[in-house]
């Protein structure tokens, strides 16, 4: 492969260009540049296969260089050199389709490994794999269109098992949100199926990696036990010195690629339940379906509800919801261990919410609250400690929101959360917040990537999922109960967002029968 090296520091630039390891990797450095502007001129002359560039440079930095390269050479792999703390640059690099990241200080072996990995990805058709997941894993194509897509790609339909490895949150460490850590995880995971003698199709999300294992037919290779064994290998391979870890969800075995969206939905259920088990968890969907009872369902519902209140800094709502959750757990016969699971899950989710606002819990706080939960012998003491912790977090978020555009978005979410069943519109919300509705619309889009209607629909669908699980209602009754005026529109949106019809969702998640 032909490499173009771009770095504003001459020592690093020359070191990279003259590494003897390039010869062993059958690579050649065909040019050097001190900034993005020089690199653009050289690309036209030397025609590199790979661009190896620093992110922060004068004249034209690595991000600007990548944006310019993408216009003419859309498929050229770009490897970025970066520092661990340059998260904002890295997020932009991800948006531009970074092939990989190498963090400074680096070793020659790191760079050679990344380039050789690029070559293996090209050989294994990684772009086709991403297209496979995009076409069959979403809801934009009908079942017949998906079948036609397989025919056009000349792909034989097969049985499969889907696994998903997601980064665990690392308490007290910003690396848990490191936007280029995932690239290293994907590189590591790609070797695991090969080591087990299996072929895997791989796709990357914003927080994890899917591995689809195709089989000729249902059988021993596609059993849950084999999936669990592979998941354990995946977890072991991703362990790092800084405590980074992954948890792995496992779908059922399916007979056809056309069921990929349903498998992805099952993975979502697995990862929701992960917060009650902690990091390094292996979660098989059919096992979860067996062991998750009413107590666990109520815990998940309560944790989600309280996390939404935390995002708005609503102390009164948090206090009331915690008290209600505690009463429900006791009435259902929850044990001390059950309540500990709930409290730890709530702590996990609250730390994720804090990180959404750029607030990182101190290691002492993160450890201390967990020690309190595990050491408390009196259940009321446990809940009081959790309430104090949650109210402190709500106060920190509320202070931040008072001085941030996020306040209006948070208040909009609060209004939706309370009134999603009503005929709510952007205009009525803007009037209540005393802002121009057009300005509020732009602000919501900027902060969330969604428009107001999408947010409202998502709240209604989440509320519908809870009603389907816990109430003996027909699908159209659920639709009207959560604010939809058209049951057909509700069913269409529900399937688009979950991959399942309301009836299938109720059946697969163990809701009350109609």
Query: Helical segment tally?
Result: 24
CATH superfamily of the largest domain: Reverse transcriptase/Diguanylate cyclase domain
> Low-confidence spans: pLDDT under 50, at least 5 residues?
170-177
CATH class of the largest domain reads Alpha Beta
Structural class of the secondary structure composition?
Answer: alpha/beta
What's the shape?
Answer: globular
Biggest sheet descriptor: 5 strands, parallel
Alpha carbon gap, first and last residue: 61 Å
Number of domains: 4
Per CATH, what is the topology of the largest domain? Alpha-Beta Plaits
Q: How are the strands of the largest sheet arranged? A: 2-1-3-4-5
Structure summary, number of beta strands: 10
Overall pLDDT metric? 80
Which key features would you list for this structure?
single chain, 514 residues, alpha/beta, Rossmann fold, Alpha-Beta Plaits, 4 domains, 5-stranded mixed β-sheet, 24 helices, globular
